[in-house]
Amino acid sequence: MHIISTSAKGGTKQLHCRALDNDSGVTIIRNAGEMVVSVPFLSGYSLYWAVLNGEIHVATNAAAIAKKATAKIDDGFLAASLSPNIPFPIAEAISPWQNIRRLPAAKQLHIDSDMRIHECWECSHATVSQVHDEPLTGIRSRLLQMADQYARRAESISIDLSGGLDSSATAYILAARGVSFEAYRFAADTIFNDDASIASHVMADIGVSAESIAPLSQHSKAFDAASPYPNAYQADQPIYWSDTEGYVGWLADRNDSTGDGRIHLTGLGGDELFSPMPAWPWSVLRERPWQAISLIRLCSRLGGMSLGSAARALLNSKSLHSSLKASIANACEVGAVHGVAGDWHEPFLFPRTLSAYGREVLCEKLHDVLSGQRLQPLCNDRSKHQLLCSLAMQSRILRQANAMFGAHHIEFTSLFLDPAVICHALRIPEHRKTADKSIMKSILEGIVPDVLFARQEKGDYTTSLYRAWAYSASTMLADVYDGILVDKGLINRAYIERMSSMPSPPTSFLFEMQRLAATERWARNVQ
Length: 527
What we know:
The chain has 21 helices and 14 strands. The chain has helices spanning about 60-70, 75-80, 90, 135-155, 165-175, 195-205, 215-220, 240-255, 270-275, 280-285, 290-305, 305-315, 320-335, 355-370, 380-405, 420-425, 440-445, 460-480, 485, 495-500, 505-525; strands at about 1-10, 10-20, 25-30, 35-40, 45-50, 55-60, 100-105, 105-110, 115-120, 155-160, 180-185, 210-215, 260-265, 410-415. Helix 5 (about 165-175) runs parallel beside helix 6 (about 195-205), helix 10 (about 280-285) packs antiparallel against helix 11 and helix 13 runs antiparallel to helix 14.
């Protein structure tokens, strides 16, 4: 945490900043008599601030400020945490604590010598204009360069090898540079998931063995609502990737026995960089207006709407803020939610786990965010805005994993979340992106076999989720019913009891319960 104050010397006011701890995520720059405070975009951090006793406290973890201010957890934040499809720009502006501000991604705090505070938007993707190489060539060169850098920097390297395209590509890139590495893959929870067999094929092709570990369901903490975070970690918000947290911890513990400085590579970010985003038709229409008729027909068919409705959806030019206000108003006021092809975001839906009070405080919080500022997109192109939003969430996963397990001398990262790779990828025209990642195929031609791109479907991990639910349901429900969220009146207990009594509840309910467990666990840990 950093504390900013002012003093007067010789009639001139000066700003001062002192650090109370090693909060390396905060960037503070002096500029023309003011201080500009921010966190690097795609660092995985959020910036929190509050004014206490005439001084401005800033930190990347609101808990540090909350302890000093004796702040309480915000019920609106808890309700929002239960809602998986709150649009990213809104979710990023909701603080976990009362009376502590949270800056959305790509926003800066400007403080002048009179201690006046202004929140200003920055252009998070401004570095794109500084990249002059052809984007596909630039991505290929950078990926190979990073493999060389990791080999020089780390004592050992390991990778996830799920059998998916992104993790397989990572393995082939390392092999192409002669980098030695260890690979880990899950045993499949079901014979209908062929990821494990594809992972075995990749390893045989490269000539490296992969260690098969217990199925994902046996490591999962997806429905853990009560246990402390490992290594006394203080999470600034819930751990939504808890289904793989046990596996990440297993990797960290395993590395502890060797004491190596290890880099562990994941495939995070590959889908976002090389696959079409939901707003793809809207973006392609702006790039290739002569394809309007085919794009309108495509949206009509996929969205189940008339040709006229599809045309209006693709031609709409609403701002992000206006679109968010309309979607939230529909959900909160009339309960009607309509998806619009090519919109900035998916339509907002209330999770059924929320009580009437939970819906009320969430609506109030959403309206507060939208009325208190005009939210700006991360890019004027809707697909690239969505890409950056999703990459920011992937970056947070890595940052949380490293903060939680970094003491074990292991660093979790991904080739596809490298800033230079992202800058190049932002220059790829949207019309070149296809569901089979043909753009990645072009980038990695001669490195990754073409046959890997012929796969039509991703591996199905719903069996892992159902098995984890079977292992943990009774314990989780007992913890939740005796927990903070129920005590605050945020939970629709009748709905949970009805659905959990089913022999095989729908997958959507299990995802709701995973989110609920993560939120309850966070509240217990910080309180």
